[in-house]
């Protein structure tokens, strides 16, 4: 768990609740994103064959069901330590589609011979709508670094020497620099290329139509990345839940008993009935919620706004106060409290904007 006991048992439980709820939400977001990318591949080929004005529309629900079926199988991977190969594939795919998005945006700016857009951003029909969109954008930005929630779980898989925390600190710094670089490049060059018509997702919003095969490749990379990413964020939830039930019901055979299962030409493996049922129900629930609210930008904004302040700001600041014995009303205390309050306001307005966006998309 990301949160330690330095802030007291109650705050530790609250922090854990937010952390696992956020991981669950990331699973929902990944189902939505994957289905959108799968639809984009089909639409890209349709536009290439029938023209850009063709009515190429495809439903997302079948794609979500396909992704859910894959995750039901993948979720039976025993634990976090067993998904190293999946993480490597996901990382390679991430670099592939990030470079593609960056390259397409840069090429479009060169082809246009000008930078589109303005400092004021895209216009809206009313000032209120503009404000809602700005609030939602804050939520999207707050979602930018979800991997921070699993840093300690990843650290637990490392070998020493050197010390795990030193290795993780170096890896985190590299990850933040690379992630920020690609976020800024894709976001800035995307807006410079399309201005007020910039799609919410450069690879699925069809700012780009050609080369269609490159769009297909990039979206396929996103799909493969999210297959691994879903497990990266789900495995800690599985481990915590299964450990809690095992400790709560130590003599229950359904929860604790493992069976050897052997298929021809394959190595034998252990199965646990509770693990199969719980993990299957978990995947089904994330898929069902995604099918009901299949709104990419709004859902990302909601997740970011809900968890940005408590997980990225409040609890780390509180732990810092306790660990370093920071006294109240000192200069450092005042600065960090002010910073925490400002971030709380960002989370609130981001949450409001994202909820309004979901309501408008669902019922508007």
Task: For this entry, give a set of tags.
364 residues; mainly alpha; two-stranded antiparallel sheet; 2% strand; globular
Question: Can you give a write-up of this model?
Answer:
The chain has 364 residues and is mainly alpha-helical. Helices cover 71% and strands 2% of the residues. Strands 1-2 form a two-stranded antiparallel sheet. A hairpin with a 7-residue loop joins strand 1 and strand 2. Helix 1 runs antiparallel to helix 7 and helix 4 packs across helix 11.
Could you give a quick summary of the protein structure above?
With 364 residues, this protein is an all-alpha fold. The protein is 71% helix and 2% strand. It has a two-stranded antiparallel ribbon.
Structural class: mainly alpha
What fraction strand? under 5%
Q: What gap, in angstroms, lies between the N and C termini? A: 39 Å
The major β-sheet equals: 2 strands, antiparallel
Low-confidence runs of at least 5 consecutive residues: none
Task: Itemize the secondary structure elements and their pairings.
Layout: H1 9-50, H2 61-74, H3 84-112, H4 127-142, H5 151-155, H6 164-194, H7 212-248, H8 253-256, E1 258-261, E2 269-272, H9 273-292, H10 296-324, H11 331-363
Antiparallel strand pairs: 1-2
Helix pairs in contact: 1-2, 1-7, 1-9, 1-10, 2-9, 3-6, 3-7, 4-10, 4-11, 10-11
